[in-house]
Design a protein that fits this description.
The chain is mainly beta and 570 residues long. The chain is built from 6 helices and 34 strands.
Length: 570
């Protein structure tokens, strides 16, 4: 455990540091061992746990990576008689979660008493423990539904004596009820006016208009405030609302609309040949002249043109042309008054016109890379590779037809590797090139034996340099050893990050070569996998990582190309 933490640079698979290098690393880094994180266990706080519950959720954090942690209710049946709920395996981060229990083996047995218990989480790797409180209730909370009181609403229009119709909305009534609507004491004490009946639907609601010419909704009554009452013919339930009656309708007086002028929202620049002007609220069939006031100084105006108004009092037109610019080129930038004047009655309208010296420079914002699409497009050409003799594994990718590129330390001393696809059956590829100085290997396979699908296309090499620092990238690989379902590996995992640095250094058996330093997290099994840019082009190949948090290494695309040229000669 200590050795795996303190080794500064670890191969993902294959050739790692020598024993001497490990001992030196331990000696120099012993004072920098991080403090141990206290393990914790957390129960699902949203779930009321009851005697006999078949399952409940548990979350773990701060445990030894990949530890098996057993979950137990202490003294569930009395002193010392514990009940083991289940087990959770934490991940490389020391965290994990799971839903424990089942119908056949419930998380909370039916034969324990309601009360407060201690839940213990115990690591089977190092015996570390964590505890939390479990409250077991006798039964679930009873949810009591409060019955909804029936309501009646009327439309919001002004109600006038003699109105033929009146709109109603009902809610909260018995389903398929018949509700009678009345104006109480419409003709004197206890002399009601029955307006009609409304049928509710299965939801106990209805929307309907009552009244007609032969039977007005509101008869000739004195103006004032009345009670409208709704009564169920099914169960006698009632609801009421107020009805205010006026003697007459309001007189609508139309206010004359002042004429207006507007222009389009584009940035106006000296020398613009055209300007769109819109007019409204003018006299029908008018002609309106449009002018820039004091365009060349005090009282020296510039008339752009005229616009004809239609029968609705509106008009719109693009004024100006190449020979007669809407905004002359010899004006000064600034704010001017744009004035419109009727040639029929002299009415006017004005607005501000801001004129700039030059247009805005349009800078296109780079779009975010669609790494999900890139992942879908590239993963068919990425393979899980395995040395059946040693069990060693890693990742490889299709460079061209029949040729797979991977890291040399993945291949190690093997002469052939078993290749697992995202879908389809595995096949065997021969090791035809090993470039230990650059940590690159090339595998060759028989196309007829591989039987690749049409979606498997070779990946394309890209370019990257120091000018691409902070650019997004994605590392693809099988750190999870692949799903290996029905002899297929499934799609490679995707880890997204940015380019941190480009640096030359030696490592393991390789010479001093150029590396990509990135923060895209990688782990054992990712070795040999491609690192792609925002366009899905290969800019590196995953190699190793450091115990310095967030530091991960990939072989630079230039180094890959150098090795490929030596082998293929192109």
């Amino acid at each position: 455990m200590l050795r795996s933490i303190l080794v500064l640079v670890i191969f993902l698979f294959g050739c790692g540091p020598s024993q001497e290098e490990i001992d030196i690393a331990i000696g120099s880094a012993i004072d920098n061992i991080p403090e141990t994180i206290t393990p914790v266990i957390i129960l699902d706080s949203d779930h009321r746990i009851v005697v006999g519950d078949s399952e409940f959720s548990v979350e773990l954090a701060g445990w030894q990576p990949q530890a098996n942690v057993s979950i137990t209710i202490l003294s569930a049946y009395g002193s010392g008689e514990d009940y083991k709920v289940g087990q959770i395996r934490v991940n490389l981060s020391g965290a994990g979660s799971g839903m424990l229990g089942s119908e056949s083996v419930p998380a909370v047995p039916e034969n324990i008493l309601a009360g407060i218990y201690t839940i213990r989480a115990l690591s089977e790797s190092d015996g570390i423990e964590a505890f939390t409180v479990l409250t077991v209730h006798e039964e679930p909370l009873e949810i009591v539904t409060k019955p909804m009181a029936p309501v009646i609403l009327i439309d919001s229009t002004r109600k006038v004596v003699g109105d033929l119709e009146l709109g109603f909305e009902l809610a909260g009534w018995a389903p398929e009820d018949r509700v009678t609507i009345s104006i109480l004491s419409a003709y004197g004490p206890n002399k009601d006016h029955i307006m009609g009946g409304i049928d509710t639907n299965l939801s106990g609601a209805a929307v309907e208009i009552l009244g007609s010419e032969s039977f007005p909704a509101i008869p000739i009554l004195p103006s004032g405030i009345y009670t409208i009452k709704a009564v169920s013919t099914k169960d006698g339930s009632e609801a009421s609302t107020a009805l205010r009656l006026y003697a007459e309708h309001l007189e609508v007086i139309e206010k004359p609309k002042a004429p207006g002028i507007q222009i389009d929202s584009t940035r106006k620049v000296i020398g613009d040949s055209e300007l769109w002007v819109g007019l409204s609220g003018w006299s029908p069939n008018d002609t309106v002249k449009v002018t820039i006031l004091a365009a060349y100084g005090t009282e020296i105006d510039y008339t752009i043109g005229s616009i004809d108004i239609n029968l609705s009092g509106a008009g719109g037109k693009i004024l100006g042309s190449d020979s007669y610019a809407a905004i002359p080129g010899n004006m000064e930038p600034g704010i001017y008054t744009l004035k419109a004047v009727s040639t029929k009655d002299g009415s006017e309208a004005s607005m501000a016109l801001r004129i700039y010296a030059e247009p805005l420079e349009v800078i296109e914002k780079p779009t975010e890379p669609d790494f999900n699409k890139i992942w879908r497009d590239t993963t068919p050409a990425i393979f899980y590779v395995q040395d059946e003799a040693t069990g060693g594994y890693g990742t490889g990718w299709l460079y061209k037809n029949r040729y797979i590129v991977t890291a040399n330390h993945v291949v190690n001393n093997a002469t052939q590797m078993k290749i697992f696809q995202t879908s389809g059956l595995p096949f065997v590829a021969s090791v035809v090139w090993q470039d230990a100085s650059r940590d690159i290997a090339i595998l060759k396979f028989n196309s007829s034996e591989a039987n690749l699908t049409s979606e498997v296309t070779p990946l394309v090499m890209g370019n990257i340099n120091t000018g691409h620092y902070a650019s997004p990238l994605m590392a693809l690989g099988y750190s999870d050893r692949g799903t290996l379902s029905n002899q297929s590996a499934g799609r490679a995992a995707a880890n997204v990050g940015v380019l941190s640095q480009v640096k030359v250094f030696s490592h393991g058996q390789s010479s001093s070569i150029k590396h990509i330093i990135m923060d895209a997290p990688i782990a054992p099994g990712d070795s040999g996998g491609p690192v792609v840019d925002r366009d899905g082009l290969v800019i590196g190949m995953t190699r190793s990582y450091s115990t310095n948090p967030g530091t991960f290494f990939a072989i630079h695309e230039e180094v890959i190309k150098e090795s490929l040229v030596v082998f293929f000669g192109d």
